[in-house]
Task: structure prediction
Amino acid sequence: MQQYAYFGVLLFVVAGSGWLEFVVRTRVLQRARRFALAVAPVVLVFLVWDAYAISQGHWTFDPARTTGVVVVADIPLEELVFFLVVPFAAVLTLEAVRSVRGWSVGDEPQDGR
Amino acid sequence: MSYTQLALVGVVATVLLDLVILRTRLLLRRAFWVAYAIIIFFQLVTNGVLTGFEIVRYSGDAIVGSGLPTFIGDGRIAYAPVEDLLFGFALVVQTLIWWVWWGRRGVQYQPVAGPPLWRRSRSGGATRTDGPDPGR
Result:
């Protein structure tokens, strides 16, 4: 069970933000294509950063508390999921603020500047 | 480059992406900073678990502090190296920049978020009665 510790934290991130989708109607799942396009360049940049940091020994992962599944360049699967889940939570949070407060975020069509 | 140097580069690149390159100007918006305040709280909690329990460990050669997780001090905040706050800023803000950028280009701008469940049940419809706030 211990090897799923990192995944447990990721699950907390999903659960901690996911409810916004239903209660605050953030409607990000209905805009999955837009999310995929937004997150793609970010995942790429951060996988490169992660690969470099791991190769240089900037950080290491406890083998007892990660699954040991590697994506590429010694990057644990947990890291890839982290780079998807954290951006998802971030977009949900921004959209939740917009939903509740009605503030614009700069993507509105009439905001042409 | 050390993690410290890379993290600073990450922040500068993110700010340039927002204000100069894509001109999404998210960093000038109240909605962003309110959202970011919420995000940073949860980052401190979740990252505190990852670093405090040493699921992720850092080399003392790559960060300002030492390799030992301290709750606060020695270049650490809630067990995590301060560099992680910069890393998180780059990760989160870059995502939001691209999210706004694609929306502005008309890619799934709709359906717009809201209204919250509780407001719909009270007003009996999806239409907001209070006008949109420009947000800055």
Remarks:
- Chain B touches chain A through 61 residues (CB under 8 Å).
- The first helix of chain B runs from residue 3 to 21.
